[in-house]
Amino acid sequence: MTDYADLEISVHRRDAITYAVELRFQLPGSDVENRLDADGPLLASIDPAALDQLDDDEYGAQLGRGLFGGGVGNAFRTAVATSQSKGVRLRVRLVIGRTASALHGLRWETLRDPSDGSTLLTNENVLFSRYLGSLDWRPVSVRPRGDLSALALIAAPSNLDAISAGRPLAPVDTEAERTRARQALDGMDLTELPGTARPTAAHLIERLRRGVDVLYLVCHGYLANDEPVLLLEDDEGRAAPMLGSDLVARLREISRPPRLVFLASCQSAGAGADRSSADAGVLSALGPRLASSGVPAVIAMQGNVSMTTAATFTTSFFSSLDEDGLVDRATAVARSVVRERPDWWVPALFMRLKSGRLWYVPGTAPGGARFDKWPSVVADIKADKCTPIIGPGISDPLIGSRQEIARTWARSYRFPMAPHNRESLPQVAQYLSINLGRRFPRLELENHLRRTLVDRYHDELPEELLGERASLDDVLEAAWEAVAARGGTEPYSVLAEIPTPIYITAQPSFLLAKALIKAGREPEIELCRWREDQSWPESVFEREPGYRPTAQRPLVYHLLGALSEPQSLVLTEDDYFDFLIGVTLNQDLVPAPVKRALTDSALMFVGFRIDEWDFRVLYRSLMNSEGGRRRDDYTHVAVQIDPEEGTTIDAERARRYLESYFDHSHISLYWGSTESFIKELADEWRQRR
């Protein structure tokens, strides 16, 4: 079974122990919610104080009677039976409403069926998570398999006896914990603290700012005034408490928080196989808070757990996660493996992902089919009939995304529109243009890029490029060369290998031209003259009327402007409208060789977000151009990473919509990131040329 039905159970407080329950059930492929028959009102009777007096088995039974004793139970069993009859798994999301926050601390994983006393959540075909909304509007982007990075922090302070934690704190076996972490995170690019540095709060935040996909955290925890506290180290290895609220606040400031935080438990009391943690799962209280700060998934221990259970669960969890990137499925599988252990219920999943997916296999369509157009793509390149069309996203690893710029500006300049619009650079730039003047967004873009580059690459840039008077082009080039020197696949260098005569770019830097020069070619740069009130640099077609782009002397055509000419940039919403009107009404704005390439060659869109303004404007102007029928003779490719959590209501339907939309234009979608596509392009071209 690979498809999933969705059951969302929302709980809202009515009085001290009575809660209203809402159910939403949907089968895969259905555009509407499916009805679950239930007798009477959907109510639950749950008394957290009374539950605390019960042992583990009776706790789960009583909790099951409280939630599923009436109509809710009948509806739940109907959802399970319906899913099984359709041959699909059931994804169950428990949503605790704001009025019912006291229920966050319950051991929901222990739920038992009141009809027969069986555990409900040790079945691999029922994927359970505590689903948490977030005020963080950043979309959760999935990562390609093989490019995942992890940070393992293991704190073992030397003076544990000096800490008033309400219980004795046993020494942490750093080497044993390090071994467990390495086994769990095998295959990821792993950074260890201690290792490269001490496990201090400062080093933790510094590594997180660089970007990691998984944070694996091993440390003692305790409560201070009902606040979770993580016991890290200072620079001398002594205990350094860090408030959970401080960690949450710092994560909110990070542009790309970890996709998964795994709060492991320290080995503490007991001996041999009976060793267990003794913190009563205090750090599980961080789960809802971390999710609210923007972390997509959190695994935490909600009680004392034996090291045998913890080790078995952890190994099984990461092994299963390695298969398909589904964090709720990995949790279900790992929980089923430890179901015979008395503390099987301790690991809890807090999640703000509806799909449960943390990573994907690059080049694989949602149905599992691999991208199969490479022979045609390479053949068109060899025939000088491939035109790369390069979007802003190709430089995201170097300078950050346009969405990050938009969020920064929206926060700094108090953008007043709806939160989901804070990701759109044209909309935020439009606001700045109206509020602070037309020149301001262009000046601020230059300042933002310079600050970002100096901050990210300070130690790798020449001293003369660190000041505000340094040329932005020079700073960009130096940062690009620093990144290229680290090794790996560099996108501009790969594109420069392709012997195509024309490159069309919506990227405002000249890095592509610099990469072409490094490859021994002689590029000519041309800007689209979309504004009549702009003074433009001399055109190569004016300077040399007989110029015809060739593979050795290619044309790099900047469609949406260049940083060196700020007024040429297509940045605001008004700019995009003016650009589209201009190139539609006056097609002579586009040089003849570029028009021929757009209608009589294979188009390769790389580095665009297909739902963004730059792609939509380019795509519509292209579809409206003359000679469009000749495009049907070629294989066109657009790179599209799977729709992100937070940008679509239903990711699966969004995928189907995109495939249908582009099928009419004979454009094949490569399901993966720009980085993944560039790597495959480099491999395919080098093998087949």
Write up this protein.
- The structure is a single chain.
- The protein has 689 residues and is α/β, with parallel strands linked by helices.
- It has three domains: 4-131; 143-357, Rossmann fold; 374-532 and 540-688, no CATH class.
- The chain is built from 23 helices and 23 strands.
- The strands form four sheets. An eleven-stranded mixed beta sheet has the order 3-2-1-4-5-15-14-13-9-7-8, sandwiched between helices. A seven-stranded parallel beta sheet has the order 19-20-18-17-21-22-23, with helices on both faces.
- Helix 16 packs across helix 17 and helix 16 runs parallel beside helix 23.
- The longest helix is centred in the middle third of the chain and has 18 residues, at 307-324.
- The chain starts with a strand and ends with a helix.
Brief account:
The chain is of the alpha/beta class.
